[in-house]
Every structure is written in structure tokens, then in C-alpha cells.
């Protein structure tokens, strides 16, 4: 995923958390916030707390989620001009490991579907 599609600064995360909306599923929570002042490419930030697992587990799930998100950007499944923060909840890495990449992609589509509804 290119740098222009990432949230990296703490103040950007805070803006999404404070001014945005959220939806949750069993394994993921998605916050989103439309940027009125600077529309453009959608940006994603990932929040994977230590409760999810050790550093290896957290980094692996982040790599997988970035790859899924990149595919959603190419298919225009994501609203442009918005910032998103995807929060991983405990249990997702273990389930994704046992059920596979397609299952993880379905979980991301599930939370994106709730945003569109």
C-alpha cells in the first residue's frame, strides 16, 4: 500500500476517532471520517493492540489487512476523500490463521458493507 493511502500521524488518528463514525463486527471495528478540507485518496490506519498477540502476530495481521485494503482500493469499494482506522479485536489472528486469507477478506468486506448501509 502506498504512503499516500496510509494514516501515520497521531493527530490524524485522533481526528478519525473524535469526529468520525464507527461500525463493529465480532473481529473488527472500523472508524471513518470524511475529510471536507482536503478531498482526495482514501487513507487507512491500522490499530492492532497488544491484546491481539505478540509483535510477530500483530505485524502479520497488519500485512494481511494492508493487502486486502489495497485490493479494495483498486476495485473502488472504498469511498474517496475519507480517512479510515481499522481496529483489530482479539481472536482475529487465530481465526484468520485457521480459516485462511479469503475468510479475512470476507470480514473486511463485512465491516465495509456496514459502512455503506
- Helices, by number, come to 4
Main sheet attributes: strand count, strand direction, barrel closure: 4 strands, mixed
Number of domains: 1
Instruction: Please report which band the strand proportion falls in: under 5%, 5-15%, 15-25%, 25-35%, 35-45% or over 45%.
Output: 15-25%
Q: Write the CATH fold name.
A: Ribosomal Protein S5, domain 2
- N-to-C span: 26 Å
User: What is the spatial order of strands in the main beta sheet?
Assistant: 1-2-4-3
Round the mean pLDDT to the nearest integer and report it.
Answer: 91
Identify the notable features of this structure and list them briefly:
globular, 117 residues, 46% helix, Ribosomal Protein S5, domain 2, four-stranded mixed beta sheet, alpha+beta, single chain, 4 helices, 4 strands
Please outline the helices and strands:
Elements: H1 10-19, E1 21-24, E2 28-34, E3 43-47, H2 55-74, E4 82-88, H3 92-99, H4 101-116
Please characterize this protein's 3D structure:
The chain is 46% helix and 20% strand. With 117 residues, the protein is α+β, with helices and mostly antiparallel strands. The chain has a single domain (3-116), classed as Ribosomal Protein S5, domain 2 (2-Layer Sandwich). A four-stranded mixed beta sheet has the order 1-2-4-3, with helices on both faces. The longest helix has 20 residues, at 55-74. The protein is globular and about 40 Å long.
